Amino acid sequence: MGLDIPNNYRLIGATKLLAILVIIGLIQHIEMLVHALRFDLLGMAPVSVIILVLISGIIACIGLLLGKKWGFIPLYFYIPAVTLFLQFSLIPFIPNVFPAKYHDIAIMVINGLVLLYSVLLLLRRMETNYIQKY
């Protein structure tokens, strides 16, 4: 199953899956992001960091949905920033399986695995671009 699909199409499909994960994360936490962008909150991450995270998430979504490799660059900023500053999980609902005191660890592990998967995916996409002689 899936062996008849060319490798490039599978890699582009996996890239679009990453984009869908980022979109789901942005939509799931849009209310928290809107509240964080309000200037009356003092305990949140700085507004400039939140704006950069949002912009990088949106640019990563656009690039990854188009199947372009440049979409990985903002993704590599987005994943650690979301993990460290906003404490969002890229794969929703999995941290809720664990007890509340382990949510932070679960979020770091999940987002770390997604980051590792995205690095491996980019490496796989890069190795298919050999210079061919005519």
Explain the layout of strands and helices.
Layout: H1 7-28, H2 30-37, H3 47-65, H4 72-86, H5 103-127
Descriptive notes:
With 134 residues, the chain is an all-alpha fold. It is 66% helix and 0% strand. The chain has five helices and no strands. Helix 3 runs antiparallel to helix 4 and helix 4 runs antiparallel to helix 5.
Largest sheet: none
- The share of residues in extended strands comes to under 5%
| Total strand segments | 0
Count helical runs: 5
State the end-to-end distance.
33 Å
Spans of 5+ residues with little confidence (pLDDT < 50)?
130-134
Oligomer: single chain
In helices, the fraction of residues equals 55-70%
Arithmetic mean of pLDDT: 81
Features:
134 residues, mainly alpha, disordered C terminus
Provide a quick synopsis of the model.
It is built from five helices and no strands. It has 134 residues and is an all-alpha fold.
